[in-house]
Amino acid sequence: MLVLRSDLVDAIVAHARRDFPVESCGQLVGPETGEHPERYVPMTNADGVASDFAFAPAEDIRLERELDAAGERRMLVVHSHTRLPRRPVAHTGLPEAYPSPKDVAQMEWTPDQHWLIVGLATADAEPEVRSYHLADGEVVEDELAVVESYMFSHTGSDDVPDRA
Q1: Helix, coil or strand: residue 92
Q2: Is 28 exposed, middle or buried (0-12, 13-18, 19+ CB in 10 A)?
Q3: Residues facing 8 on adjacent strands
Q4: pLDDT one-digit tens code per residue, 132-149
Q5: Model pTM?
């Protein structure tokens, strides 16, 4: 199960709304040895179109250097899918927030990477947030839990931390 803090999801959705109808993109990053992402890094969509995204190369290189220096790593690729009325997805039977064929080709470059996709029909629409990864070359949807804090995400909010 993929567990994300709600403040991170809120920041991702806000970025997708700001950039609509252009696809937004960014990275969820966290400690090199950590299990959960700690921050969202919004990035510039170098493609600047509603149906595709690419990280701006200089920004991507700068982020990689910052992560190396801070002992952090990329944990999830994030982008939005903007579905304009002239491009309905209902005929496919797939959710709006589903990897496109180009997404899948990019996923093959980093098969251990998870991808978070925000589907937005309009800038004000209810977002559809889903995560995917590749397993044996097949797209697999992650079970996604959004929590207020990672502290109790494995035990439930009614537990209290142990005292020394």
Answers
A1: helix
A2: buried
A3: none
A4: 999 998 999 999 999 999
A5: 0.85
